[in-house]
Amino acid sequence: MRSAFGMIRDAAMRQARARARLAAVLLLALGLAAPAAALEIRAARVLPSGTVLAPSDLQVFGAARAGAHAPARAVAALLGQETQRTILQGMPIATSDVAPPTLVSRNDQVEIVVERGALRIRTFGRALASGARSDVIPVMNTTSRRRIEAVVVGPRRVRVAP
């Protein structure tokens, strides 16, 4: 179960991407923007679902315009991302094929941290949903059996907002 905040944030991100695509198409149609160089990033090997991308996993094909930093930016945007599906060797990698890596999986035992000033309380709980960094997920405190909402801050680590 996702929180309302997470669903609203996801919807806003989808709308922003759609607006950016529409603006690019309009600029190209009006001749106000030059088309980007034919640049394609492909898988250097078979990438199973859940693989965190490293430089050795990527191959860049195509030529960029002189002085353009498109290849470096495109590769940098993919590095550290996690594949959402299996990508076969030589297949192009689209931005929709990757997402931020999952740091907490459903049913993982997680460290719950609450900090207020100099006071810091740590306990353990069980994640009731998966999440990437900054995602708000439900967590059950294993001591009190209470369900709380927490922000993913690291691998198997969440923080409760004061």
Mean pLDDT: 81
Query: Structural class, please?
Result: alpha+beta
Q: Give unreliable regions as ranges.
A: 64-69
Along the chain, the helix and strand elements come as: HEEHEEEEEEEEE
Give the distance, in angstroms, between the N- and C-terminal Cα atoms: 22 Å
Radius of gyration: 20 Å
Per DSSP E runs of 2 or more residues, the count of β-strands stands at 11
Strand ordering within the main sheet: 6-7-9-10-11
Instruction: Identify the overall geometry.
Output: elongated
Q: Helix coverage percent of residues?
A: 10-25%
- Main beta sheet, described? 5 strands, mixed, barrel
Strand-residue proportion? 25-35%
Count of DSSP helices?
Answer: 2
Structure characterization notes:
The structure is a single chain. With 162 residues, the chain is α+β, with helices and mostly antiparallel strands. The chain has 2 helices and 11 strands, in the order H-E-E-H-E-E-E-E-E-E-E-E-E. The strands form 4 sheets. Strands 6-7-9-10-11 form a 5-stranded mixed β-barrel. Strands 1-2 form a two-stranded antiparallel ribbon. A hairpin with a 5-residue loop joins strand 9 and strand 10. Mean pLDDT is 81; it is low at 64-69.
Quick recap of the structure?
By secondary structure, the chain is an alpha+beta fold.
